[in-house]
Specification:
The structure is a single chain. The chain has 10 helices and 23 strands. Strands 1, 2, 9, 10, 11, 12, 22 and 23 form an 8-stranded mixed sheet that branches. The longest helix is centred in the N-terminal third of the chain and has 16 residues. The radius of gyration is 22 Å and the shape is globular. With about 450 residues, it is an alpha+beta fold. Bound molecules: flavin-adenine dinucleotide. The site of flavin-adenine dinucleotide (FAD) has 40 residues, from helix 1, strand 2, strand 15 and strand 21. Flavin-adenine dinucleotide binds next to helix 1, strand 2, strand 15 and strand 21.
């Protein structure tokens, strides 16, 4: 199919952000009498859900140490709840289970969740934490846990199903989605600032406004937009730090234990909340008892019929390469480089066994034949950048926090329609130069 010669709004990327923005922008334009979904074109170099959104574990939670992230997540959870069927959303709740070193941080999250009316329960102390956990799973055995934050909202959604659901909603509003159209450059006008056209593998598309939802490929689009490869950051020490790389890659490690998902039900036979455990208890091999680590470690997991087992992951690792040299394609399970190996399988299965007896001795049924894992592109402080560049390009760079952030597209759409968003304000690019940085937690994950 030929690309149109021109559109009002061009969206790059048919993942969670591109499609959520397109869908909500269509609604905004209609409501305000400013147009409709027919004014919007989404292009994707591969297909709907071909990027990180299509392989995400799908966890939706509020648990963040940063107040601005928490408020944004509370908003996103409302969007998930607005149409659970189309979004394939399972509101089973979420648990952050932590050691003493994270106790005070989690207590402050709980206090602030109360302040914004986000429902959660907070259990403190080793004995009470153990009692609470065994009340849910009678085989719970993780040691050294001194707090449990149980979020009653959130849960998880099925990755590709939710993105297809979102695409159908956008198309229902008249949005066009074109697969196999790769943006290879931009044409600039007006003092060489604003984008006047996308240059694509299928031809030139003139446009008035561009939204970038390119996920792990954001570094490439950033380069095509001729934006700076390094930034200056005013640090917590009040000093300016120059020449900090704008983008870096981390590889996420996830997989599936091939058990019947039903075997991870709670004591009362319900589907359990998503479990996230961080701990400094020594981790021993479930195969031979040898010590794997005595440093802080963490894992998350949930029963998932879509993946066909208990699915989850552990901490990602930094890809120590110039971002321009990282082989993003082929992406996800098709990558020869960025998929999990035996080390992850051994460690993650041992972590599961550390937490619950039912997972002991199950490493043999880990789903080894299904490749998993994938790259995420992170900003200098590992928090999102949501901002307008070159006058008319809205870049949604979620720093890999983003499947759960379904609501960001709604806020971006409102901004494009002319209404500034208080929730997006803490995520402007200018925060680096101004030193308006988000607080950092003690979690072993770069996204908590
Ligand atoms: C293994 C893994 C597990 C994760 N689990 C979770 C989780 O449980 N919860 C959570 O909240 N987040 C999770 N994340 C993070 C989350 O998946 C991402 O932050 C989010 O999906 C990014 O969405 P996006 O729309 O920006 O990008 P994507 O979903 O990656 O979509 C970008 C699209 O842009 C297209 N594209 C790229 N370049 C071009 C171009 N030049 N021209 C045209 N199209 C282009 C790609 O083909 C792709 O389809 C996970 C990430 C990974 C890798």
């Amino acid at each position: 199919m030929a690309v149109p010669s021109g559109v009002k709004y061009a969206v790059i990327g048919a993942g969670i952000h591109g499609l959520s923005t397109a869908y909500h922008l269509a609604l905004e334009l209609k409501t305000r009498g400013k147009g409709s979904g027919k004014d919007i074109l989404v292009v994707d170099k591969t297909a709907i859900a071909a990027g990180a959104s299509g392989i995400a574990c799908g966890v939706v939670r509020n648990n963040y140490f940063q107040p601005a992230m928490r408020e944004l997540m509370a908003h996103s959870v409302e969007v998930w709840e607005s149409d659970p069927k189309s979004y394939s959303y399972h509101p089973v709740g979420y648990m952050q289970i932590s050691p003493e070193v994270m106790h005070e941080g989690c207590a402050s999250i709980y206090r602030q969740q109360k302040a914004i009316g986000y429902p959660s329960t907070f259990i403190e102390g080793e004995k009470d934490s153990m009692r609470y956990m065994t009340g849910i799973f009678d085989d719970w055995q993780a040691r050294g846990i001194t707090s449990v934050l149980h979020e009653k909202k959130g849960g998880y959604a099925n990755n590709t199903a939710s993105i297809y659901g979102l695409a159908a909603k956008a198309e229902g509003e008249g949005v066009r989605i074109m697969s196999g159209v790769e943006v290879t450059g931009f044409e600039f006008g007006g003092n060489n600032r604003a984008v006047t056209a996308l240059l694509t593998s299928k031809g030139r598309i003139a446009c008035d406004y561009v939204v970038v939802g390119a996920g792990p490929w954001v570094n490439r689009i950033w380069n095509l937009l001729d934006l700076p490869k390094t930034v200056s950051i005013k640090g917590r020490d009040g000093m300016m730090h120059h020449g900090v790389r704008m983008w870096k890659y981390w590889c996420l490690e996830e997989g599936t234990l091939g058990v019947d998902p039903d075997m991870h039900k709670t004591n009362d036979g319900s589907m359990p909340p998503v479990i996230h455990v961080d701990t400094d208890a020594p981790l021993h091999s479930d195969i031979d008892g040898s010590l794997i680590t005595d440093k802080l470690w963490g894992l998350y997991y949930k029963p998932d019929f879509n993946f066909g087992g208990v699915q989850g992951g552990s901490s990602p690792y930094v890809v120590d390469q110039d971002p321009d040299d990282v082989a993003i394609d082929p992406y996800g399970p098709d990558s020869p480089d960025f998929i999990v190996g035996d080390n992850f399988i051994h460690t993650w299965c041992s972590m599961l066994a550390h937490c619950q007896k039912r997972f002991e001795g199950k490493i043999g049924i880990y789903k080894k034949d299904e490749k998993s894992g994938g790259l995420g592109c992170f900003t200098p402080d590992s928090f999102p950048v949501f901002d307008v560049f070159r006058d008319n390009v809205f870049v949604i760079a979620d720093s890999n926090h983003g499947y759960k952030m379904l609501g960001v597209g709604k806020l971006v759409a409102q901004e494009i329609a002319g209404e500034k968003s208080r929730l997006l304000e803490p995520f402007r690019f200018s925060r680096y130069a101004e030193g308006k940085l988000h607080p950092v937690s003690k979690s072993p994950f770069p996204w908590s």
